[in-house]
Amino acid sequence: MTTASDTQTTLGAQFQRNPVVRNAISAIVEELRAAQAPITDVRPARSPELAQAYAQMLENAGDIRGRALLYPYLGSGMGNGALVELADGSVKFDMISGIGVQFFGHSDPLLMQAALEGAAGGDTIMQGHLQGNNDAYEFARVLLDQAMKGSALAHVFLCNSGAMANENALKICYQKHAPASRVIAFAGCFMGRSVTMAQIGDSAAGRDGVPLSTLVDYMPFYDHAAAKRMSAGDVSGSTRYIDMCVWHLRQYIERYPKQHACFIFELVQGEGGFNTAPPEFFRALMEVCKDAKIAVWDDEVQTFGRTTEMYCYDALGLGDMVDVVCVGKMSQVCAVLYTSEYNPRAGLLSATFLGSTDAVRAGRSILERLRDNGHYGPDGKHAKHFKMFEQRARALAQRHPDWFPANRDVHDIVSGLGGMMRMTPFGGKKDAITKLCRTLFDEGVITFYCGHDPYHLRMLPPLGVFQESQWDRVFELVESGMAKVAAQHKN
């Protein structure tokens, strides 16, 4: 018999609140906590048999893919915070977190709970724009509420990859400024792997064999070393460098009048080298764009959530300048946000998928935890962790100055912002840096490289769960790996 109270809620809500379902989810989460508890430090493969089986898995994966995996990484499905177990039973510190996706590490109980609740509350695995559930828009609401604090951003369109967020942003800019067909981007930028984004990204290998149909003009990113060399008299090198870049931008605009739809800004370059710039550099260029009616597009697919504010434009005080913003990676579900002025006409944006139901739930959990748990501001967790990384990297350089030879193109051996961290040993030489990454993997620390001559060792640690006490252990392993690489280069 149906009661009045039953008719005031949905069957879906009743199922999600069902005590049997809630208790089952709680039981699974508690089993996870117990299972991950033994993972407390790095370790080698658990047995020769597992190591042999793992080698066969890697060979099979390479055959299927058509190329060997860059890192011999196949997860077991279990981890504990920043520590991850591989399928051979070995354990490593994950200091790159899937290039920034796993900000709350591996086997996080709260994300497991959110994902299970999503599975229990989702009648479909994937949600889309034609047929989606309200939890997708609850996620988008949290994303937008944080965005609106320091900007005029007013709307969100969700999608299932950072490249698609960028594709949608480009379409918005093209439509708003039609028939303008050119885009401006920074040298060294990375935009994604789609055909169009590969053309905008400043990597020859990334567009090898791709027909070039997108018109791109490249601007120099801020170069701290060059700016320092430009100092003269009472005028700072930074002022001179910014003036030079403004002149460069105006040359493009005069050369192609009314033909630029947008300028794409990475406020901290990711693949380009974790390069940073002072806020006044961006503001000067953005003001030129505003005067010329060129969209200011802020690509935060990698920076989102991990600098000293949730949105990097807030960290740099640039929210009043942005028209379109893309976010992704740690958010699990990606998105393009835009002002009312840039709200596109019907038909331009659509997609079958926006993301999976469990990703939507987990993404919202991530946003709320970032918002509510002291991650941001000058004294927030991200700023503190960067300082701890910096202190240990500089101490390492003091103990081993020969590992950090001078390079006129490296303004500082340590750089980055918040959870985007880099250091530059071995003069930034590519072969040494890539060898170091492989050696550190064997030592038990997963890192990666970034930049283009010079190259840098980069970390995107899972700061949502990383413990301050773990920095010493990580740098103990880093120092051991660097010693091995240094010895090889001496020989």
How confident is the prediction overall: mean pLDDT? 95
Give the count of helical stretches.
Answer: 17
Our Rg estimate from Cα atoms comes to 24 Å
So, CATH architecture of the largest domain? 3-Layer(aba) Sandwich
Q: Judging from the principal axes of the Cα atoms, what is the shape? A: globular
What is the strand and helix layout of this fold?
Blueprint: H1 4-7, H2 11-17, H3 19-36, H4 48-65, E1 75-80, E2 83-86, E3 91-94, H5 97-100, H6 109-120, E4 126-127, H7 134-148, E5 153-159, H8 162-176, E6 182-186, H9 195-200, E7 215-219, H10 224-229, H11 237-255, E8 260-265, H12 279-292, E9 295-300, H13 312-315, E10 324-327, E11 334-339, E12 355-356, H14 357-372, H15 381-399, E13 414-417, E14 420-423, H16 430-443, E15 445-446, E16 448-451, E17 455-459, H17 470-490
Parallel strand pairs: 3-15, 6-7, 6-8, 8-9, 9-10
Antiparallel strand pairs: 1-2, 2-3, 4-12, 5-11, 10-11, 13-14, 14-17, 16-17
Explain this structure to me?
- The protein is of the alpha/beta class.
- It folds into three domains: 109 residues, no CATH class; 247 residues, Aspartate Aminotransferase, domain 2, CATH 3.40.640; 83 residues, no CATH class.
- Helices cover 43% and strands 15% of the residues.
- The chain has 17 helices and 17 strands.
- Helix 6 crosses helix 14, helix 15 runs parallel beside helix 17 and helix 16 crosses helix 17.
- The longest helix is centred in the C-terminal third of the chain and has 21 residues.
- The N and C termini lie far apart (83 Å).
